[in-house]
Write a structure and sequence with these properties.
Length: 289
């Protein structure tokens, strides 16, 4: 299937816009955070005073009559998975950018950082079902394919079911991976599957929020549509009682979401559609040094 020219143009523009950020700022934090995912055996050498006796190879020592220790080196190759919520709620934003656009931008920054670090990157798109999966690979052309899918893929459903994505990743990923989950996490019943996934992999919950989801803007009488159910309501946004009720309900939803994330024991980054988009991720990497 051919990709429309406007999609290819978007991908190219996104690469140009993120390149300087990746090269000058983000890549350093990324590299420091992912500088070693484990240790693998490299060679033997003779024991010298001060070596950890736990590293002594007793079989080789017995055969040669000399004491040898095992040497290890860092496993540098990382597998990164971008798990992206493509449900209807990501097509919302009260400012210049929708939540989905912010997700695409940050996914591009992480993907190109992985390329610069010679790591593998894969993509999972999900709604209330697994919509699309791209197995992790290396290379710039692979990242461009991922970005084309982010822009071009049209989900079959508008709903959200985070547990479907988490269960799929747990079943399909055999090697330990770092999984960045981009979603507003406005769902229920995902905490157990997220905790199970986090027992095997490093999982970072990237919680994308918009200011209008906290405080209802005063726009007068407007028609609003639920992005996931399609329900249309007429709302007087200037009514103080409506504003208070909206703020109360959104606060309760946020409290419930935050409680579920705590129960899942997942790492968390709070992202907003307004302000510096990359600052929260950079700060997250700095904290994890």
């Amino acid at each position: 299937m051919s990709v429309p020219a406007e999609v290819l143009k978007k991908v190219k523009l996104l690469e140009i816009r993120t390149r300087k950020l990746v090269n000058n700022l983000f890549a350093g934090e990324y590299h420091t955070h992912f500088k070693g995912q484990g240790m693998t055996f490299a060679d033997f050498r003779e024991y010298v005073p001060g070596d950890d006796i736990r590293s002594i190879s007793w079989p080789l020592t017995a055969r040669t009559g000399k004491t040898f220790v095992k040497q290890y080196e860092e496993e540098r190759e990382l597998t990164m998975i971008l798990a992206v919520d493509v449900s209807g709620s990501t097509d919302f934003g009260s400012g210049e950018q929708f939540k989905g656009e912010v997700i695409n931008w940050l996914s591009a920054v992480l993907a190109f950082s992985a390329v610069k670090n010679n790591d593998q990157v894969g993509l999972l798109l999900f709604s209330d079902q697994v919509e699309h999966f791209v197995p992790p690979k290396k290379g710039r052309s692979h990242v461009q394919r991922i970005l084309r899918d982010l822009f071009y893929f049209r989900p079959k459903s508008n709903g959200t079911k985070l547990s479907a994505a988490f269960q799929h990743l747990h079943g399909i990923l055999k090697k330990r991976a770092s999984i960045f989950v981009f979603s507003d996490f406005m769902d229920e019943g995902f905490e157990k599957s997220l905790r199970v996934l986090g027992s095997k992999h490093e999982v970072v919950a990237c919680v994308v929020q918009d200011p209008a989801e906290e405080k209802l803007p005063d726009l007068g009488v407007v028609e609003v549509q639920d992005a996931e159910t399609g329900e249309i309501l007429t709302v007087d946004t200037s009514n103080l009682d409506v504003q208070k009720q909206y703020a109360k309900e959104m606060h309760q939803r946020k409290e419930k979401r935050d409680r579920l994330l705590r129960l899942a024991q997942a790492e968390r980054v709070d992202l907003r559609t307004a302000g510096d988009l990359t600052a929260p991720l950079i700060e997250f990497f700095r904290r994890r040094r």
